[in-house]
Amino acid sequence: MRKMLLAALSRVLQGPAAAARPVSRVVVASRNYADFTSEATFDIKKCDLHRLEEGPPVTAVLTREEGLHYYRTMQTIRRMELKSDQLYKQKIIRGFCHLYDGQEACCVGLEAAIKPTDHLITAYRAHGYAYTRGTSVREILAELTGRKGGCAKGKGGSMHMYAQNFYGGNGIVGAQVPLGAGIALACKYFGKDEICLTLYGDGAANQGQIFETYNMAALWKLPCIFICENNRYGMGTSVERAAASTDYYKRGDYIPGIRVDGMDILCVREATKFAAEHCRSGKGPMLMELQTYRYHGHSMSDPGISYRTREEIQEVRSKSDPITLLKDRMVNNSLSSVEELKEIDVEVRKEIEEAAQFATTDPEPPLEELGNHIYKNEPPFEVRGPSQWIKYKSVG
Amino acid sequence: MAAAAGALRRLVRCGPQQGLGRLLQPRSGIHGSAPAAVQVTVRDALNQALDEELERDEKVFLLGEEVAQYDGAYKISRGLWKKYGDKRIIDTPISEMGFTGIAVGAAMAGLRPICEFMTFNFSMQAIDQVINSAGKTLYMSAGMVPVPVVFRGPNGASAGVGAQHSQCFAAWYGHCPGLKVVSPWSSEDAKGLLKASVRDDNPVVMLENELMYGVPFEMSEEAQSKDFLVPIGKAKIERQGTHVTLVSHSRSVGHCLEAAAVLVKEGVECEVVNLRTIRPMDVESIEASVVKTNHLITVEGGWPQFGVGAEICARIMEGPAFNYLDAPAVRLTGADVPMPYAKVLEENCLPQVKDIIFAVKKTLNI
């Protein structure tokens, strides 16, 4: 009944043009879900392989539900990051802010291939992962604005957001990689068939501790997927200027690797499923290089155009935007419609606005919070402030 | 009677560290129960602690260089790999930054690792993981991610190992909120503190001393029990005194007791405080002692600038004990140079018993 009313309303609103519209358009406008296909199969780019006979499949099946979910999630992250940009320029967000727009297919694709009981750790460009790992936009934005409603009560900030089975958010370049292998060690130790996704960037890929970690992960067959998010620039240094070998998927040497189109969510998903299967079967670690791109500079203090051209950024936006790629696939294969996706856009915008509203009105943490969380499971004790007369109580 | 009992207590506390290895069994004659105290080296005490904690909790495991098949570079983990196997006792490659990060990550994911540094000098390569990953994460996550890891190994000077292998890290780690830092002297300290550290849900840095590993101490029956813990954050008065407070940690505690034994013949009664924990420091015990004795001397092996002694002096200045000082507080520390190799030079780079005696007399003006 509702659908018929909507259809009628739609025709009324469209006015005289309605009659001229092709039949399929009218059907779509009436929101008759039976006219969408339930799934479609897509060709995806073949991954470059290192020390592997076979790689991930070259086709992927996308269901309508999955597509809508991926679209909504990527769009949410996109708008959340753009809102953060806005808030930063208004000086409501301070300090470091490393934005993820452009790279959405990576975090959403990875999450689509693993379970909530699997583990993930990344570096400081972490807002997208905080979201896919279960933190609400509200809590993320409130953490960025340093309020008590933030996911870390305002004590962590942009680079230190955590969730169940999500270990941050790490500020020291590369340090998260040994941590990730340690989490994988725990997965193997507990024997619960869980794996750890350990992410780092093209800049971090030259850190020595990563090679130490490759060695131990391979030696001990840790269920760890090392994932290099190669967005072509480590801050202002392009990969060609930083690495003697830019084949990041081969840098694990004895660790099998795949190079993945990080702008295609289906490619990311299939590759991750492939790698996860490898790890879960006890074969040891795998390495994935996701070729991706960030629209923003390294951080909010980097305009991002001194070391790359506006043309390059524009080209990626127009030809490889992950959200547009998914949208086109879905619309062109009757998995959804422009209107339906627009509706999702509207809902997402609303959610982000409400979250931003919360993030700008929630109070800052109370001063008493300053001393807390020094030790866990410790009777309350005193923490020294800037002078001997200023003391804060500390509870874990 | 009280004086005799007091003398006996001092005898019990002072005895073994002079290396005479006397077997003291004070209880058998006095209390009529079976003799229960035994002589245990610091090494064996640590080994027992590791064994007991590995047995008690499956989540506890040990990793580090040579800890498994070699039985430990200093034999602290002797026999453990044979007993517990590859899963619980893990030999690592020489990759401090890597394996320390792995230990910290494992702790974040619910295990309780003990990460051994062959010496704390090598921990400098991994110090980012200790401080930034282990020490700060609970705070940054507002309590969501605890890091129950123990970092342990020999710290400070050894004998003739040269400058790069002789540094004391008590001040370095003691500086950082989020960490706990302990520094055992005796076997009882070593065993009780290691057990307490493993059971603590926070990152603990345990600074042992290589020269103490082979030293036997009497361990009471209580200290031998599987649930014997030494509380972290509490100092111990090793010797009661009235004229001067000697505050120390690790090997220097023994030197303080030796100095006290010499000074007592001249009528000077030293109170010897064994810090046991560097962070959180038990300043109250030091203050209470200074209120009693009116004189303070700190003794440590680490360098003077920004050291443990410097912190103690500053804290005393800020607290009630300042008004009870009859003389400025004095620090005895390692010499302000990298550690030389030649024996005569090395000896003179650490506070010796004669230096402590000299400092006591100077501060008491005798």
Automatic annotation (TrEMBL), chain A:
It catalyses: N(6)-[(R)-lipoyl]-L-lysyl-[protein] + pyruvate + H(+) = N(6)-[(R)-S(8)-acetyldihydrolipoyl]-L-lysyl-[protein] + CO2. It is found in: Mitochondrion matrix. GO terms for cellular component: mitochondrial matrix. Keywords: Carbohydrate metabolism, Glucose metabolism, Magnesium, Metal-binding, Mitochondrion, Oxidoreductase, Phosphoprotein, Pyruvate, Signal, Thiamine pyrophosphate, Transit peptide. Residues 1-19 form the signal peptide. GO terms for molecular function: metal ion binding; pyruvate dehydrogenase (acetyl-transferring) activity. Residues 72-367 form the Dehydrogenase E1 component domain. GO terms for biological process: glucose metabolic process; pyruvate decarboxylation to acetyl-CoA. Its cofactor is Mg(2+); thiamine diphosphate. CDD domains: TPP_E1_PDC_ADC_BCADC. Its EC number is 1.2.4.1. NCBIfam families: PDH_E1_alph_y. The pyruvate dehydrogenase complex catalyzes the overall conversion of pyruvate to acetyl-CoA and CO(2), and thereby links the glycolytic pathway to the tricarboxylic cycle. This is Pyruvate dehydrogenase E1 component subunit alpha. It comes from Chelydra serpentina (Snapping turtle).
Automatic annotation (TrEMBL), chain B:
Residues 40-215 form the Transketolase-like pyrimidine-binding domain. GO terms for cellular component: mitochondrion; pyruvate dehydrogenase complex. Pfam families: Transket_pyr, Transketolase_C. This is Pyruvate dehydrogenase E1 component subunit beta. Keywords: Carbohydrate metabolism, Glucose metabolism, Metal-binding, Mitochondrion, Oxidoreductase, Potassium, Pyruvate, Thiamine pyrophosphate, Transit peptide. GO terms for molecular function: metal ion binding; pyruvate dehydrogenase (acetyl-transferring) activity. It is an enzyme of class 1 (oxidoreductase). The pyruvate dehydrogenase complex catalyzes the overall conversion of pyruvate to acetyl-CoA and CO2. The pyruvate dehydrogenase complex catalyzes the overall conversion of pyruvate to acetyl-CoA and CO(2), and thereby links the glycolytic pathway to the tricarboxylic cycle. Its cofactor is thiamine diphosphate. One of its GO terms (biological process) is glucose metabolic process. The gene is PDHB. It is found in: Mitochondrion. The keyword Ribosomal protein does not apply. Gene3D superfamilies: 3.40.50.920, 3.40.50.970. Its EC number is 1.2.4.1. It comes from Chelydra serpentina. Heterotetramer of two PDHA1 and two PDHB subunits. The heterotetramer interacts with DLAT, and is part of the multimeric pyruvate dehydrogenase complex that contains multiple copies of pyruvate dehydrogenase (E1), dihydrolipoamide acetyltransferase (DLAT, E2) and lipoamide dehydrogenase (DLD, E3). These subunits are bound to an inner core composed of about 48 DLAT and 12 PDHX molecules. Interacts with DLAT. It comes from the Eukaryota. Its main location: mitochondrion. It catalyses: N(6)-[(R)-lipoyl]-L-lysyl-[protein] + pyruvate + H(+) = N(6)-[(R)-S(8)-acetyldihydrolipoyl]-L-lysyl-[protein] + CO2.
